[in-house]
Amino acid sequence: MSSDTAFIHGPAPGNPGWLTWNLEDDTRFNAVGLGPMIIRREGERSARVRLIDLETRHSNMHGNVHGGVTLAFIDVAMFATMFCVLGAEVTGSVTLDLHNQFIGAGRIGAPLDVVCEVMRETGRLVFLRGTAEQGDNLVSSFVGTLRKPSLR
Question: Global pTM?
Fold first, then answer.
């Protein structure tokens, strides 16, 4: 567990090769709005973040994953990827922009993955891109920019 970042980030029980990505404070949005997440590094500048339990509370009126859930998960996954690839010093970063294109519907009952890549890092900014997917089903494609914390 990484207590200096307020995240529980260690081996994920029952998921070899994956690490947990959950807030220690389970009353905050990540836990309440999304649920348990795990992460694994994929290559030098990429990670795969998985939302494990998609339930009815995550659904829209059509019974698919609500677009707001997908967008919130993508936002969290960008931070998780940045942490995984660049290290804990990026904790406290903020989202500047997130551009998403929905391509297909996510299904309730199956894990949702975000595959995210750090495209470029400057002194204060990190540029990312990726996809949200369930198996072979592409749910969305996105690009985003995060601003790293100030050195105070």
Answer: 0.93
Beta bridge partners of 47: 41, 116
Write out the chain's pLDDT in tens, 152 residues: 444 567 788 899 999 999 999 888 989 998 899 999 999 999 999 999 999 999 999 999 999 999 999 999 999 999 999 999 998 888 889 999 999 999 999 999 999 999 999 999 999 999 999 999 999 999 999 999 999 988 76
Measured distance CA(56)–CA(146) in Å, rounded: 30
Instruction: Determine the Cα–Cα distance for residues 48 and 128; give it in Å rounded to an integer.
Output: 13
Check: CB of residue 102 under 8 Å from CB of residue 140.
yes
Looking at 1.10.357.140, 3.10.129.10, 1.10.10.10, 3.20.20.70, the CATH number of the domain 3-147 comes to 3.10.129.10
* DSSP-based helix, strand, coil % in the chain, nearest 5: 25, 40, 35
Q: In DSSP terms, which residues pair with 141 in a beta bridge?
A: 101, 131
- Distance, CA of 32 to CA of 14 (rounded, Å): 22
Report the alpha-carbon distance of residue 23 to residue 16 in Å, rounded.
20
DSSP 116-131: EEEEEE-SSEEEEEEE
